[in-house]
Specification:
Blueprint: E1 17-24, E2 45-48, E3 51-54, E4 59-63, E5 71-83, E6 92-100, E7 107-116, E8 119-122, E9 126-130, E10 133-140, E11 143-150, E12 163-170, E13 175-180, E14 186-195, E15 198-203, E16 210-212, H1 219-229, E17 239-248, E18 262-272
């Protein structure tokens, strides 16, 4: 059974640090304090460590302290990438921000710009690393992926980054939360069917369905999402999901014994009605 892990080959050593980040609904904020949507992602407002930075033409410079000589600069690194992050069918954007404060550090952050009626609303930025080497930024299946090179634990900051690493983010709101992958787990994207005598997961790019084993920690959330999103669908219609988990053996008996393998889902990252397997950029 082929499962899709949302990472890219970089040519660096194969050691991979994988962290998933998931957006949850933001806490209520007074309407008067919310920034207005910006015309482009490079003009939106992003929060870094609790501070709001309103970019103009991709950058902003502010005084670190009133009257201080040192200044903090935040600017967009490279070009934003586009893709649908909130499932509304409208392209949003993901971008890498670089913050310098006058010291030796160069701090990299990931952020998203959500398209609201043609204007972009920036999210809280998520720290990636200090003096890393960014390699690739992309959006696939509603997931933001950043591949970069970092240093190994204990290496001096003067050592060139050589450790391949990745971070993953998905958006359901404007607050980012981190969900680490346990040892042996991966990210799998595909179609889920739940009904009488069937509980299957078919990864995108293959026709080999796996049985969703009954001890999957994510199964209650998957059942709830399936019944909510597929209320008006025909029986046994597939629902697109992004899951964390790992392949396991198929059951020795019961309905699952006729499948090619099993999958133990530890987390439901997102679910969306529609044929998303055919269009990874959506």
């Amino acid at each position: 059974m082929e499962l899709i892990r949302l990472a890219y080959k970089t040519g660096l050593p194969l050691t991979l640090t994988a962290i998933i980040l998931v957006c949850t609904a933001a806490q209520p904020v007074a309407e008067s304090t919310l920034p207005l949507p910006a015309p482009t992602p490079g003009d939106a407002t992003y929060r870094i460590d609790g501070e709001a930075y309103a970019l103009r033409d991709g950058q902003v410079i502010v005084e670190s302290l009133p009257g201080a000589a040192s200044k903090t600069m935040v600017q967009v690194y490279g070009e934003p990438v586009q893709g649908d992050l909130d499932g509304d069918g409208v392209p949003d954007a993901a971008l890498l921000l670089v913050q310098t404060t006058g010291g030796s550090g160069t701090f990299y952050y990931l952020a998203a710009a959500i398209n609201r009626d043609g204007g972009f609303v920036g999210t809280r930025a998520v720290y990636v690393g200090d003096r890393i080497a960014p390699l690739k930024l992309a959006i696939r299946y509603g997931v933001v992926i950043i591949d970069y090179a970092d240093r190994r634990p204990g290496e001096a900051m003067s050592t060139p980054p050589s450790l391949a690493a990745s971070k993953y983010l998905v958006c359901r709101g404007e607050v980012l939360e981190q969900i680490p992958l346990a040892d042996g787990e991966l990210i799998a994207v595909g179609e889920v069917v739940i009904g009488h005598e069937v509980r299957s997961f078919t990864p995108c790019g293959t026709d080999q369905a796996a049985w969703l084993v009954g001890d999957s920690p994510a199964l209650p959330a998957m059942l709830a999402a399936y019944h909510m999103d597929m209320t008006d669908a025909s029986p046994y219609a597939p629902l697109f999901m992004v899951l964390t988990g790992q392949p396991v053996a198929r059951p020795a008996e019961g309905f699952g014994k006729d499948f090619t393998g099993g999958f133990r889902a530890s987390g439901l990252v997102l679910s969306r009605p529609g044929a998303f397997c055919a269009d990874p950029g959506r």
